C-alpha cells in the first residue's frame, strides 16, 4: 500500500515558501538601508514589511519542520529539528537547514529584544542574516527534493542574484548617513 | 534635563515621536527624525523615547558633574 504523500508535499511546498519569504525579507531590509527609491517608499512601511515577511517565513519554517516529522517517507524525530546531524536523510545538507532556522530565530528574537540588548549587539546579530540566507540556499539546493528541477534552480538563482544585487547596491551607493543626530549637529538655528 | 540623541541608522520615520512630542521632534528631508531642541526636561521626550518602534531615541541625562544614559 502506498503511503499518503500529503505531508511530504506540504513539507516541500512550505520549505520553498519559507525560502521565498526569507529572500523577500532580506531584500526589504536591504531596500530599507540603501533606500534606492528615495522618499517614494516610506521607511516605516518597508520596516513593517521586513518584519512581517520574516515572521511569516519563520511560520512556514515551523510548518516545514512539522510536516517532515509527521511524514512517513523519511523518519525524522522531534529532536532532529533542533540538533543538527540527527536527520537521517542527507544529514549534512539537512543540518544546514536546521542551523539556518535556528540562526533566523536568533536574529528575529534579537529584534524583539533590541531595547534590552542595545543597538550595537542587535546590529552585529543582524549580520547573521547573510549566513542564514547562504545556509538556506545551500540547504534547499542540496537537501530539497526539487533542488535540481529547472524551476527550482530558477528560484534559487533568482534569489541569490536579487540579494547579491541589492547587497552590492547597498555597499556601493552611500546609504542613509549613520551616526547619531543631536540638535547641535544641525546647521540651522534652533526651532524652539 | 536630557539631551536628545537619535540613531540615524535605526530611525525608520514611523513618526511616533513627532505625534507624541511635536515641539521636540521633526522629520528631516531624508526621512530621519531630528530633535528641535538642544535640551529638554519635558515628560513627552521620555514618552517619545519609550514609544519609538525602532528604539532609535536615547535621552542622556545632563548633570552638573556627569552624564548617564537615561533611556
Q: Please summarize the sheet with the most strands of chain A.
A: none
Structural class of chain B: alpha+beta
Low-confidence stretches of chain B: none
Query: Oligomerization state of this entry?
Result: heterodimer
Shape of chain B: globular
Please list the strands of the largest sheet of chain B in the order they lie side by side.
4-1-5-6
What gap, in angstroms, lies between the N and C termini of chain A?
Answer: 80 Å
> Rg of chain A to the nearest angstrom?
20 Å
Question: Which band does the percent of strand residues of chain B land in?
Answer: 25-35%
Bin the helical content of chain B: 10-25%
What profile does the largest beta sheet of chain B have? 4 strands, antiparallel
Report what the structure shows.
- The complex is a heterodimer of chains A (192) and B (71).
- Residues 184-192 of chain A have low confidence and may be disordered.
- Chain A has seven helices and one strand, in the order αααααααβ.
- Chain A has 192 residues and is mostly helical.
- In chain A, helix 1 packs antiparallel against helix 2.
- The termini of chain A are far apart.
- Chain A has helices spanning 6-34, 43-70, 91-112, 114-117, 119-126, 128-143, 150-172, and one strand at 180-181.
- Chain B has 71 residues and is an alpha+beta fold.
- Helix content of chain B is 20%, strand content 32%.
- Chain B has helices spanning 16-20, 43-51; strands at 2-7, 25-27, 33-35, 39-40, 57-62, 67-69.
- In chain B, the strands form two sheets. Chain B has a four-stranded antiparallel beta sheet with strand order 4-1-5-6, covered by helices on one side. A two-stranded antiparallel sheet of chain B has the order 2-3.
- In chain B, strand 2 (25-27) and strand 3 form a beta hairpin.
- Chain B is globular, with a radius of gyration of 11 Å.
- The mean pLDDT of chain B is 88.
- The chains are: A mainly alpha (192), B alpha+beta (71).
- Strand 1 of chain A pairs antiparallel with strand 1 of chain B, so a sheet runs across the interface.
